[in-house]
Each structure stands twice: as C-alpha cells, then as structure tokens.
Design brief:
Blueprint lengths: L2 H4 L13 H13 L9 E8 L5 E8 L5 E5 L13 H11 L2 E6 L10 H15 L1 H4 L6 E6 L1 H15 L8 E4 L10 H5 L8 H12 L22 E8 L3 H13 L4 E10 L9 H19 L1
Helix pairs in contact: 3-10, 4-6
Length: 298
C-alpha cells in the first residue's frame, strides 16, 4: 500500500450498502470533506434533460472547450448525485478543457437496471443534439465515469454501438465495475480491502440488477463482441476487487481491434484518488484529465 494512502485508511467510513438511504447520507458527508475545486475558469450550470423522467445534469463549460464527456459518478449504483460528484467533475473539466456533463442518474434499488443506463443514454442523445448550445463539437463527444459510473459508461458505449446511436469518440473508464459474476482472482480474494471489497461489490450488483438477469448493457464484461467500440483509457487500482475484470476487459478490447491505454496504479485502492494530498492521487487525476484532453483534441 502506498504509505501516503495507508495513513488515511482508518478515516474511511465503513459502508456495506445494506441500508442505501443511510449510506447515501454518509457518502454525501464524505464528499463535503473534499477541498472545493477551483471553478473560476469555467461556467457551471444546472440543467434538466427532457426524458421520461427528466434527468438532472450539471454542465461544466471551460473557456474555449472543444469536446465533451458524459460523466457518470461512482457510488455502487446506489449512492451519489451531481452534488457529491462536483469536486471531481470540476477538476476533470479544468484538467481536460472538455465540457463535462455530470449526470444525476436514477439510483438503485428504487430504480434498478436499466433506469440509470436509460438516463445516461438520454443525456448522450441530448448532448449530441445540443452541441452548438453547449459550445462543443458533436464529433468530439466522449463517455466516462468512475467505478459504477465507469461501468455505466462502458454499457452506454455498447448500447450506442448496437442501436446506432450518437457517435462516441472515446471511453474514459476509471476502476469500472464490469462483471457481476465476480469470478476473477481480485474479486474472490479482496474481501477486506479499503472502501470497496467483495461483499460491498456483491451488494451493489444485487441492488442494481434487482430480479432481472444480467445483460451486457448492465455488466459489459458479459458482452460477446467488443468490436467497433470507441478507443478507451482504463485505469485500475492494485487493491481493488474490480482490478482483474478491468484488465481482462482491456485485453478483450485490444483483441477486438479497439485501441486501449491501460494504467494499473500500484499501491492504490478503489477510490483512493479522493485522498488529494497523496502524490499518486494527484498523478491519477492529472492523467485522467490528460487522457480526456488528448481524446477531444485529436
């Protein structure tokens, strides 16, 4: 474990997702403890995307932005909103120069799959049709997210490919949750890792899937064909249950002819980039921004 990160482990709240309402409150409190981002170089606006039901988004528009990212927050499918994601969405916009459209998708278990994916797809379609209004290029729309949100982004790319939806230029997937089966070495063995462990992942998938069987749009690792998907940047944490499924997905994308940049961060755990004082966290956030900046600029 990176020593700068290890020192903070006792301060992380224990969360098992057995009580989603209470965990949402704790998650929101944790988000308020993060130092506020600098938004002086961008416009920040709350919008509502017409859908059934409508979807709340927060748009971060840096000066002279070129491309955009549909950004999906983490939280195990059951926690988070545009407010808890504010520190990270703003930092991503500042680091990348891209318009960040942070999506307040519906949460499980009240709204199991496919509610969150439907919300994300509605925002993708809206962004493609309102590119001029957003000050971006419709040919430079990307998708991305962290953890559960990154899994949603991967599912969104699959759905857009299959339904011939809006063109997606790039996938920015940070520690994505991709496989409900939890059969990899890391998923089976990381039972007591910080913040995210096997039991918590199991609970997240149970809430998200409800009584429905998993499909590739819910759990992208189940997709049989990964060809024709957008290029991807995938980052993993060494002590994260998702680690091996993410690496396997990156390899499968490569074998399907999809360009991939894969970064495995040693000494880190799931979500540890939130510890902003750690040097490795600063590098992780900077690299996410740089990867997105390259994707929308090329």
């Amino acid at each position: 474990m990176d020593p700068e990160l290890e020192a903070f482990i006792p301060l992380f709240p224990r969360a098992d997702l057995t009580d989603p309402i209470r965990e949402r409150e704790n998650f929101a409190a944790l988000a308020t403890s993060v130092p506020p981002p600098d938004t002086s170089g961008m416009e920040v606006e709350d919008r509502t995307v017409p859908a059934d039901p409508d979807v709340a988004v927060r748009v971060y528009r840096p000066h002279r932005a070129r491309g955009a990212v549909i950004w999906l927050h983490g939280g195990g499918f059951v926690m988070g909103d545009v407010d808890t994601e504010h520190p990270w969405a703003a930092r991503l916009a500042a680091a990348s120069g891209a318009v960040v459209i942070s999506v307040g998708y519906r949460l499980a278990p009240e709204h199991p799959f496919p509610a969150a994916l439907d919300d994300a797809y509605a925002v993708l379609t809206w962004a493609a049709g309102h590119a001029a209004e957003l000050g971006t290029d419709p040919g430079r729309i990307t998708v991305g997210g962290h953890s559960a949100g990154a899994g949603l982004a991967a599912g969104l790319a699959l759905r857009a490919r299959d339904e011939q939806g809006p063109a997606i230029r790039f996938q920015l997937l940070n520690q994505p949750g991709l496989d409900d089966r939890q059969e990899t070495w890391s998923a089976r063995n990381f039972t007591d890792t910080p913040w995210m462990n096997r039991d918590k992942v199991t609970a997240a998938w149970r809430h998200y899937l409800g009584s429905a069987p998993a499909t590739p749009y819910a759990a992208p690792a189940r997709a049989g064909d990964l060809s024709g998907l957008p290029p991807a940047y995938i980052s993993t944490a060494e002590f994260c249950p998702n680690r091996d499924e993410d690496i396997a997905y990156a390899l499968r994308l490569l074998q399907a002819g999809v360009s991939v940049e894969l970064h495995q961060w040693p000494g880190t755990f799931h979500g540890s980039q939130a510890i902003l004082s750690a040097e490795v966290s600063q590098r992780q956030i900077a690299e996410l921004g740089a990867a997105l900046r390259r994707a929308v600029a090329e």
